[in-house]
Amino acid sequence: MVRRVFYSFHYEPDSWRAGQVRGMGVIEGNAPVSDNDWEAVTRGGDAAIQEWIEEQMSGKSCVVVLIGTNTASRKWVKYEIRKAWHEGKGVLGVYVHNLKDSNGNQAAKGANPFDAVPREGTNMMLSSVVEAYDPPFTISKYVYNYIKENLADWVERAIARRAAL
User: Fold this and answer.
1) Per-domain boundaries in the chain
2) 3-class DSSP assignment, residue 149
3) Residue 2 above 80 pLDDT?
4) Which residues does the UniProt record annotate as the domain Thoeris protein ThsB TIR-like (predicted)?
5) Lower Cβ count inside 10 Å, N or C end of the chain?
6) Spatial separation of the C-alpha atoms in residues 145 and 102, rounded to whole Å
């Protein structure tokens, strides 16, 4: 079964890294949005952004949060995580800080965004039940290959785990 996922990430610093993950072709994901399109959406305010997220998440079975340096602090990433969890979708994180950006630079590892999102009906954070995978390499091509080799399995695990809770 081909899974369709929604990729959540901090747009400005990590869009190049997100493009690498999307381009792996392992999982069908939401289409990349151009800078101009995203600016048009954001000019519409919070309601327009929520509507865009709703449209993009529709029909997806899992949300993959691509974790960069400041991803955990982003308002819309937290919103996407809460929305996905509330809708019963699988949720997982993948650290992408060691993938090179368009300038050939890597970034500092960011915090786990699931540490900042409470699990509904409990006093626990989602990090207690949602996996955040950190590739055990620092060389970008090894990080890329590790993600490519494992992403489909991680998505299946996240969907199964969510269904069991």
Assistant:
1) 4-164
2) helix
3) no
4) 6-100
5) N
6) 18
